[in-house]
Structure formats: C-alpha cells, structure tokens
Design goal:
By secondary structure, the protein is α/β, with parallel strands linked by helices. The chain is built from 21 helices and 25 strands. It has a six-stranded parallel beta sheet with strand order 3-4-5-6-7-10. Strands 11-16-15-14-12-13 form a six-stranded mixed beta sheet, sandwiched between helices. A four-stranded antiparallel beta sheet has the order 20-19-24-25.
C-alpha cells in the first residue's frame, strides 16, 4: 500500500503525534481472560499509540487472537497501525515458542550461518503471531563474567559479536526487510563497574571506536532499523541523554534514519537513579533532545512532551521529525496492510518440526568440551552403570528472557533414555540445590556414585524468568544469573562445588557438566575431574543434545566465546588484553612459593577464549600468511587424527607487533568452519580483511600502520609484513 506519509503526518493532531512516541503499556492493563480489552485501551489511549509488547504468559494461538483485537481497536482510534513488539534473544518470549540456546551458547558455535537460520526461524514464528519488532539481538560485549547479563551476549570478542549479531539480524528481518530488529544496548553496556548491572562504564574513545561500536554498525548495515540505548552511563554521561552517542555517532556519522526506542524505564532512571535531572519532565526533554523517538514501555516522562511543546522547549519540527521516522518505519515493513495472524498459520509455524530440529542442532554445536581424560564418550560396552547427580540434572535450564517450561525434558531424563537403549543402568540423586547450604543430599549422591561405573555431575546456575527485571512475570524463583542477578564470585552456587569434590573422592571417573550463563571457577575440581563440559543454557532441545554428545552419537564442536578465569580476582581477563595487562615479571607464584605478578597464581585464564576440544584430535600444520591487496591470505592444513567426524572452528588471531598505541596480545580477526572426515586432512584458506588490521590512533583516525603482524592459528604462528 502506497502511503503519503507527509500528508498523513499533517492530518494528525498534536495529541495523535505524541501518541506515536510511546507504546501502550504495561500490556497487563489490557489483558482480561487472556484477551485484549479494547474498552480499557480506548480509555487509556484515545489518540492511539506506537505499539504494544505481547503478553508473555499466553500461548501463540491466543497471542494471535490478541493481536487481531489490538489491530481492530487501534483502527478505531487512528489510521496508524500499532507495532506489536516482543523480546526474542533466543526465541520469542511467549509460552510455546521454540527456545534456542541462549546467546552465549550461540556465540560458542562460531557459526554465523547457523545463527542466521535461527534468526530466520524466530522471525517466522514472530510474524505468524502478528509480531513485527524484536528487542534483539544484544550486541554488548561480555567482558565481565560477574555481570548476570553476560549470558545474553555472544561473548567477549568484538569480531565474534559483530559476525553473530549481523547474522541474527539478516535472518530475523529476511530479504524482504519486513521486520524490525531493535539492537541493544547502545553502547558498551557489557563492561559495568564491578560487574553490577546498570553500573557506569568507562572505556577509552579508541576502545569505543574499535570494539564496542562496530557490532552495532554492522547490524544496522545488515538491516536493523531500530536501536535501544543502554541503561548505563558511558564515560560519565547516561546513554539515554548522551548526544555524542545518540546523535553525533548514530544519526550524523552513521546516517541512521531508523527509530530509537528507550530501554524500559531508562529515561526516568536519569532522574531518580542516576540523578542527572531535576524531574521526570526534564528527563523526557533531555532524552528527546538527543534523538530518542519512543519511550518504552509506557509514557512516564514523554507524557510531558505536550507541555514542553507548548512552552517552546521542544519544537513542533522536532516532534514531526520523530513521528515521520516512525511512520516511515511502519510503512517500510508493510504494517499498513499487514495480514493479520491466523490460527492455522500459527500452528504450522510455531515450534514446527523443522524449528525443533534446528534447536537441537544449535544445542549440539553450542556445547564445549574443555577436558577429557578418555572418559567420554561413554563406552557402553564397559560402562554399564552411570550415576547422574547434581541439581541441574533435574531441570531444563533455558536462560533468561524465556518462559520457564517445566514440561521440557531434563538432562536426567534424556541421559536415562539414551542409556536404556544401550542397556546401561542409571542411578540418580540431586545431591543439593543451586543455592543454600543444605548438604543432606550428599549421602544419597555418594551412594549412587559407588553403585556406578562413572558419574555425570550436572551443576551450574539458573536464570529462567518470564521477563526482565521490573516488568512481565515475577515470582519467587531464586535466580543466580540473568538480568539483575550479578555475582561477587564465580563459584557454582550453594554447596555444588563440594558435591563435585565428594563425587571425585568416591574414586569413579567423573564428568562435570556446567549448565550456566556465565563461566564458573571450579579450582581443584576442574583439575581432578576426568571430563568437563560447558553446556551453557542450551534451549529446549539441550537435554537431548547433551545426551547425544555424552554417548558419542555426535561430536563436540563448540569453542569458548568467553575466557574462564582461574579466580574471580583476575577479572577483567579476556583474550585481547594489551601486553601490560598480562604482567611484567612473568613469575607466577603458588601458596607454597610466592612469586610475581600475582603472588599466589598466574595471570592466565583457566580456559582461554576460543578453546574447545572434541573426540577427534585436530592437528594444525603448514600455516602460511601472504599479503594480498584485500588483506592477508592465511592457509593452514587441518588433519582429523581421530575416528569421529569433526567440525572445527578455525580461529585466526593477529598481533600488531609494534604500534603507536598498545595493541592486544591477540585479537580475533577471522574464523571459518571446516568439516573433516576421520583420518582425513584438508587445507583451509581464510582472508583477514585490511580493516581488521587497523586501529584508531591517538588522533582518533583509524589506520593501518605499516609493520609486522603475527598471525596465530591453532597454536601455530607466522609473521607477515603489511602496509
């Protein structure tokens, strides 16, 4: 439908224009018996509204009916259709949608093509329900594992986050560009002081330019038409009132003409939380002046925009500019003639067999094997009795921004089903809880371990919540990770670490499976166990995928998207530190013999970013690097020295040996998937583009400084000169 947007804009009253700058919410006000209540909506928003979040606790078919009623009501108020919005970090935040691995697990796949397919599936399910905007993906860098929202990120590497984020956006919006991806949190939200959510972030201008901004620019280029500012203050200025970010960078430098939507309550936080404004009215004025078009989830500060216009503090020209952006966005995605959802299409699309199979594939590829002394895969010829213990054996953890689904298959159930096929007996015991101090279950767990030939100990955290902090569904569930659930330590909650130690003391082979949204520190347990798996929050098919991997029906291929510290005291620790962050003396000490730089320990992580093994050893050889016009062409030979089919993520790092500003000891600049048959070898070629060799200098100019670069792949190194 061709719409004369300027004419439409001119036909609107001031009240109707201002209504487009705020969603109607919270949605609970308009849900009666799971149906949209038009009478309440008309009374509260007689001039219409930008849109509305979908209810998070109702089934897809009911959401479809709810959307139809919403559109009918909106049409009676204004000629402008509403934008139906949702959260979709790893699946639509709605009861019954397909839940994929949480973002940090997807980062561990190092597979943008897989991420693109997941985004496409999420977009199809959303469209079927009548949803046309997702508050996703999260493009923060996961730089502090104490921060509970690290699970929502794709990891610590700017390059990895950029590639996974743009792939998600491409899949979500599709080639038709008829869906809105609202990327968040702009910018640098993932490195808060002390790991505390909403805390300030301080980064250098060069770090901002080279690390924190590129994922957002790439996502916008890939088709993201909306941006959400971060709650935090960047270098002392709240992002919701930050002209440098929201106007100088986003609008002026990048030319972004999409819609900026506030994080929920983010504008009002500048008043009561960050104390940067004298009133809510002043907060709204500041946010609007820097370019935030829409206040979400409802008008707490933008309710004063009319008064500000009448006072002359905000011009009608500025109001019209924002409203026109919104009208254009709605027209561009076809909202004015959108086909309303139908029950048949919802049932065909949401949680289709194809999407569930994709969820299992993603779960398999997200899990990372960190250690294996030959215990895995489980040899069902010699291992006829298995003990499955630990609190996360008894629940399917899917991560935050997801509806808890107690009906999902647990790891214990999946492992038992798989074991039964091979006539393997499973003993089980919870042992303890994820939190608290109760160790009364240890005795039962020890008894199960003594009866078994091997032990699978499944521990970790929990963050399943129907929504974020302060909105959506709230209950009494105790959470250890996710939004607002930050950690002062990285030890598994409650007495879980002691449970693992008890299992090791029994003397049977022990495999530890960590199901969590952040890295965990296991100290001696990691050293003394026989196998160690980082499973993250693997989505609705995670339990089945875990069983397949443990029994060797599939091979591990995941690699760590974040570094695992040896101790929380090492934070911040990530792969792309500059040399001076790694210590000067290089003489790590022990409790028995103190040393330097840390008196009682090394400065290196327990498991480094990008680490991960499988059931077949992958040997790297014949690394070469050649300067070509477009960058550096890297070639390396990979050999599958084992008996299992393998899929290897070939990660390429570089180090700029001499630069005018200190550069990382290694930074990820390229990666590529390679599939290898058993006992086969193949050469893989990868291009490092010129822009990945550049950095922003003291003068804020980005350049490639001539000099030697060390290229690192699979433990091998070579040098090449580039200019």
């Amino acid at each position: 439908m061709k719409i004369d947007l300027q004419k439409l804009l001119e036909s609107l009253t001031l009240e109707q224009k201002l209504a487009q700058l705020t969603p109607a919410g919270p949605y609970k006000e308009f849900v009666v018996d799971n149906k949209f209540n038009s009478e309440l909506a008309r009374e509260a928003y007689p001039n219409g509204f930008f849109g509305m979040m979908v209810p998070v606790g109702i089934e897809p078919e009911v959401i479809g009916e709810w959307v139809c009623e919403l559109y009918k009501c909106s049409a009676e108020l204004t000629p402008i259709p509403p934008m139906v919005m949702c959260e979709s970090l790893h699946g639509i935040l709605g009861k019954g949608a397909t839940m994929f691995p949480q973002s940090i697990g997807m980062g561990g796949t190092f597979d943008p093509d897989l991420m693109r397919r997941v985004g496409e599936a999420i977009g199809k399910e959303a469209r079927a329900m009548g949803i046309r905007l997702s508050l996703a993906p999260d493009l923060d860098l996961g730089r502090d594992p104490r921060w509970g929202r690290i699970e929502e990120t794709y990891g610590e590497s700017s390059y990895l986050v950029r590639k996974m984020g743009e792939a998600y956006v491409e899949g979500l919006v599709s080639e038709n560009r008829d869906y809105v991806a609202c990327v968040k949190h702009f910018a640098a939200h993932g490195h808060p002081v002390a790991g505390i959510n909403l805390a300030p972030v301080t980064v250098t201008p060069q770090e901002l330019e080279d690390k924190y901004l590129p994922p957002f620019k790439a996502a916008i280029d890939a088709g993201a038409m909306s941006v959400m500012p971060a709650y935090s203050a960047l270098n002392g200025i709240p992002c919701h009132g930050n002209k440098f970010l929201m106007d100088d960078i986003l609008r002026q430098k990048w030319g972004f003409d999409g819609v900026v939507i506030s994080d929920f309550g983010g504008i009002e936080m500048m008043n009561g939380f960050q104390r940067c404004t004298e009133s809510m009215k002043e907060s709204g004025k500041l946010a609007f002046s820097v370019g935030i078009d829409v206040e979400a989830p409802y008008p707490r500060t933008y309710r004063d925009l009319k008064a500000l216009v009448e006072e002359g503090a905000i011009s009608m020209e500025a109001i019209d500019k924002s409203v026109l952006r919104i009208l254009k966005l709605k027209a561009d995605i076809g909202l004015f003639d959108m086909q309303l959802p139908t029950i048949d299409n919802i049932r065909r699309t949401v949680r289709s067999d194809e999407h569930k199979a994709l969820a299992r594939e993603a779960a398999r590829k997200s899990m990372t094997l960190l250690k294996n002394n030959g215990m895995l895969p489980i040899n069902t010829d010699t291992c006829k009795k298995i003990a499955v213990v630990g609190p996360n054996a008894y629940v399917a953890q899917i991560g935050d921004y997801a509806i808890p689904q107690p009906e999902l298959k647990t790891p214990l159930t999946a492992i038992t089903e798989r074991a039964t096929k091979s006539d393997v007996t499973v003993f089980s015991a919870k042992g303890c809880s994820i939190y608290g101090t109760d160790t009364s279950g240890f005795a039962e767990a020890e008894e199960a371990a003594r009866e078994a030939d091997a032990v699978i100990c499944i521990i970790g955290g929990q963050s399943s919540r129907g929504a974020g902090i302060g909105w959506g569904t709230e209950d009494e569930t105790i959470l250890t990770c996710g939004e607002g659930c930050d950690a002062h330590d990285l030890i598994p909650g409650g007495p879980q670490l002691d449970l693992v130690r008890k299992m090791i003391e029994v003397g049977k082979p022990v495999a530890i499976v960590m199901i969590d949204g952040r890295p965990e520190t296991l100290f001696d347990a990691a050293e003394n166990c026989d196998a160690l798996v980082a499973a993250w929050y693997p989505g609705e098919e995670g339990s089945n995928a875990l069983a397949e991997l443990l029994f060797g029906d599939a091979n591990f291929s995941g690699k760590l998207p974040v570094s695992f510290p040896r101790h929380v005291g090492q934070i911040p620790i990530y792969h792309d530190r500059v040399p001076s962050e790694c210590g000067f003396y290089k003489s790590p000490g022990t409790p028995e013999k103190p040393g330097r730089d840390y008196v009682f320990g090394p400065t290196t992580p327990e498991f480094e970013f990008g680490y991960g093994i499988g059931y077949s050893e992958i040997k790297y050889s014949s690394l070469s690097a050649e300067r070509v016009q477009d960058g550096i062409k890297v070639a390396v030979t990979l050999e599958n020295a084992g008996e299992y089919n393998a899929e290897e993520s070939v990660l390429v790092f570089v180090r700029d040996e001499v630069a005018s500003m200190p550069q990382p000891i290694k930074k990820l600049v390229a990666f590529k998937k390679a599939s290898l048959d058993p006992s086969k070898a193949a050469e893989t070629e990868i291009l490092i583009p010129n822009e990945e060799l550049m950095f922003t200098g003291a003068d804020m100019v980005k350049r490639l400084e001539p000099g030697w670069f060390t290229v690192m792949v699979g433990g091998l190194e070579t040098r090449v000169y580039a200019e």
